[in-house]
Amino acid sequence: MTTVLRPMSTSELLDRTFFLYRKHFVLFVGIVAVPYLITLAFQLVSLSVHPRRLGPAGSLWTLIWVCVYLTTLAAAQAGTVVAVSDVHLERPVTIQSALASIKGRLLKITLIMLAVWVGVGAGLALLVVPGIIFALMWSLSIPVAVLEGQGLRGATSRSAALTKGNRGRIFVIGVLFVLLVYIVTLIVQVPILMAVGISHHANPRAIPTWYGVLSAVGSFVSNSLVAPLFTIALSLIYYDERVRKEGFDLEFMIASLESPQPKQQGADAH
Fold this sequence. Notes:
The chain is mostly helical. The protein contains eleven helices and no strands.
């Protein structure tokens, strides 16, 4: 199958997102699940450690936990971007190769993600609307940072340029995926909450340890299943905007034609 790059409508982007997710389900869920296992391990340890009981050391534990969470989230997003790029352009990719490709850049990507979050958070504090605008402007910062090697300033300015004029569909897609995350989280967490309510009806204040374990595992499962989808969509939007504004489809076609073709089997037999 030859890669065909062309501008896509919102419905086509969504269709392509779910198509890639279904076809490469193990790949995308695995890329997210591997780093998230580290987060899950920290959550389970925290249930027994109880940072509040550690005194001053509890603050250090919390700081380590936040750093681990941010790093694993960045790894999952960046690895997914790499995988989408390779799959979309029909290049070979595995869970290991996708995650290994961002290993040396993980700190920079994490800091870019954190800086974008801080900027969006500050915007949300200013009557909400500026935060939404910043979120849409910088929505492609991680794909730009991963695929083009840009720093914070380059990634955010490039994202703002690529999304200009098409932020409405990014908003629509974002809302749809937020609703999807909410629904999946409810499906996973509500049975756990019901089980707690039934088993501890007599003493509602006593929250069992097994609830914390099941809740952490449920969060891990729901995040691993849903988190890849929005990153896949953003990665496809990145390429779609490049096709629309930079003629990336022609650039890719020319590069493909100029790349050396594999020799036919038996050509050197004589």
